[in-house]
Amino acid sequence: MRIIFSILMSALGLWVGLAHADSPDAKSLSSWGDPIPTAQLEAQRGGTDTGPVTINANILNAKLYDNAASDNVTGHNTITGNAFAGASGLPIVFQNSGNNVIMQSGTVLNLTLK
Fold it and tell me: Which pLDDT score is estimated for 110?
């Protein structure tokens, strides 16, 4: 009995599919305008653009050779409470309280727009 029921349901599904397999009239789509070409739609598809490859790395290769500092006095390095008042963006601070120092810094900002 199950086999007969399965065959009947399969035949019914095939018959319904064939009944609606006709192509739509061109007049029924005319109120929507002309279809957009596939090539244009391909260019507008979202989420598939790999874009430029982003490498989140800083290559900092400073070199310091043959420097000498003698009898130098270094001072205190402080930042007060209002040092960043009114700052916007990404404030970055470099502080140096020594001699013969190389200071390097890099900032990577990953921004995803959704």
Answer: 78
